[in-house]
């Protein structure tokens, strides 16, 4: 099952990610602990042999080998090889997720354009969506181990209600050397053409819209199949694996603590446990494990896609009596099978085209029909937050008519806001007469000196108001060619 921790990191706070380090399911510890244990065991064995079982000549040979391995092991481009590989694997992983065939768009088009509340109209809509979901089940059986264990044969798919016996016979009797996931979508298109002839689809535009959504759905099924078919080149996976394993194989010898009495460069301390080497193994080998995890998300790892749950979401499985339950192999081959009875699941696609078709609530005036009311807020939220209007919303040009500022405003042509502008910069404008004022009270007529005062020296204000006039012109005439901000 996919491990979700979104709620735990909803807010950035001190040590926000630290609580995630103690989770086991889906963790790097669960993936890496076996390799980490083997590496530590091999390092300890080599260290004991070097210290206790080698004579002087053998120790000298081992020490020369260790120095050689330590020197040249760094020639392996670990960061580049691993980084590029994991990046490609992640892009592939995200592409497979976005290619998952969800019937939401298709069911909306079917519900809105295939009309008829009689049994025939209901049958057409439900059958169309059943065919769409059958196609996704067939493709997922081909690429997902979880779905394959749930539906080992087409008979299991038929008993689950995704297709009838006649449809199963048609699938079995059609000879093809390739995957036949596209057959139900062909039935879908034929049904859409039949519905157009019967007048269930009113015009060709609606039929075209329906076929476009069907083609998008088919394209996603095809993309999943090709993701499973065309993998990252095997040679690159081998290069990355060999690079990581060979690097740490050399580290088993090159990172040994040598005898400090022999004064080897960099070997003046003997602490027995290679802390930083173990950390390096944890990071690099863990990085390789990440690539191994996400290169195929249709397996049974903790973070692989929940394909069975998505199938259940997308389809309504019909009622099957308890005695007709069939064996679903939910465990690995060789273990005992578990009988899981099927029940009635009201799921997304069937709800949209059947229960919810033309089932509209009563039209009535909304709460704010006559006058505007403040939207309700709970005590946990702040209703007085100022809405963001754009980063340049408060930027104005002197004398420029702004659509956001009424022409009758006292600030137009007189005073424009400048945020934290030192007066020393304003005094450098020799050709204009500059007045620098600070607003000390509520905004009133800026010419009223009772509410404004000039700061002393080069003192800066949080909000400063600038009045610029050209020499020889009226004091209220503004220079339209200069901007204050």
Layout of helices and strands:
Elements: H1 28-52, H2 56-72, H3 78-98, H4 104-113, H5 119-143, H6 145-150, H7 154-159, H8 165-173, H9 183-197, H10 204-229, H11 234-254, H12 275-294, H13 307-314, E1 327-328, E2 338-339, H14 348-355, E3 416-419, H15 423-427, E4 432-439, E5 452-453, E6 463-470
Antiparallel strand pairs: 1-2, 3-6, 4-5, 4-6
Written account of the structure:
The chain is mainly alpha-helical and 485 residues long. 46% of the residues lie in helices and 5% in strands. The chain has helices at residues 28-52, 56-72, 78-98, 104-113, 119-143, 145-150, 154-159, 165-173, 183-197, 204-229, 234-254, 275-294, 307-314, 348-355, 423-427, and strands at residues 327-328, 338-339, 416-419, 432-439, 452-453, 463-470. The strands form 2 sheets. The chain has a 4-stranded antiparallel beta sheet with strand order 3-6-4-5. Strands 1-2 form a two-stranded antiparallel ribbon. Helix 2 crosses helix 11 (234-254). It is elongated. The protein starts with 27 loop residues before the first helix and ends in a 15-residue tail after the last strand.
């Amino acid at each position: 099952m996919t491990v979700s921790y979104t709620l735990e990191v909803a807010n950035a706070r001190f040590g926000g990610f630290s609580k995630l380090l103690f989770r086991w399911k889906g963790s790097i510890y669960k993936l890496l602990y076996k390799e980490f244990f083997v590496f530590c065991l091999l390092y300890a064995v080599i260290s004991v042999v070097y210290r206790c079982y080698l004579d002087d000549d053998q120790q000298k040979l081992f020490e020369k080998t260790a120095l050689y391995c330590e020197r040249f092991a760094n020639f392996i481009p670990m960061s580049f090889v691993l980084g590029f590989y994991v990046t490609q694997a992640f892009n592939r992983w995200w592409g497979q997720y976005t290619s998952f065939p969800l019937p939401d768009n298709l069911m909306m088009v079917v519900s809105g354009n295939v009309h008829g509340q009689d049994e025939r109209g209901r049958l057409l809509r439900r059958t169309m969506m059943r065919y769409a979901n059958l196609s996704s089940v067939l493709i997922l059986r081909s690429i997902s181990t979880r779905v394959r264990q749930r539906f080992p044969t087409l008979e299991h798919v038929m008993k689950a209600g995704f297709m009838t016996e006649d449809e199963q016979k048609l699938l079995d009797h059609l000879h093809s050397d390739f995957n036949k996931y596209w057959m139900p979508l062909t039935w879908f298109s034929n049904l859409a053409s039949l519905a157009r002839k019967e007048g269930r689809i009113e015009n060709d535009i609606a039929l075209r819209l329906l076929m476009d959504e069907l083609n998008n759905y088919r394209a996603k099924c095809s993309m999943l199949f090709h993701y499973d078919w065309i993998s990252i080149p095997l040679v690159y996976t081998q290069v990355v694996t060999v690079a990581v394993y060979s690097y740490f194989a050399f580290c088993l010898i090159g990172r040994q603590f040598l005898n400090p009495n022999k004064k080897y460069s960099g070997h003046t301390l003997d602490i027995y446990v290679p802390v930083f080497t173990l950390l390096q193994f944890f990071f690099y080998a863990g990085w390789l494990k990440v690539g191994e995890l996400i290169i195929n998300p249709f397996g049974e790892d903790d973070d692989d896609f929940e394909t069975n749950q998505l199938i259940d979401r997308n389809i309504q499985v019909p009622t099957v009596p308890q005695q007709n339950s069939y064996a679903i192999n939910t465990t690995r081959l060789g273990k005992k099978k578990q009988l899981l009875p099927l029940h009635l699941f009201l799921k997304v696609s069937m709800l949209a085209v059947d229960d919810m078709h033309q089932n509209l609530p009563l039209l009535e005036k909304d709460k704010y029909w006559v006058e505007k009311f403040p939207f309700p807020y709970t005590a946990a939220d702040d209703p007085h937050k100022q809405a963001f209007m754009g980063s340049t919303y408060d930027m104005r040009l002197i004398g420029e008519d702004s659509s956001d500022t009424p022409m009758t405003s006292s600030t137009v042509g007189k005073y424009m806001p400048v945020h934290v502008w030192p007066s020393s910069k304003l005094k450098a404008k020799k050709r204009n007469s500059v007045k620098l004022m600070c607003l000390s009270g509520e905004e009133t007529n800026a010419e009223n000196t009772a509410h404004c005062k000039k700061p002393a020296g080069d003192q800066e204000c949080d909000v400063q108001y600038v009045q610029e006039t050209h020499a020889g012109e009226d004091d209220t005439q503004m220079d339209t060619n200069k901007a204050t901000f």
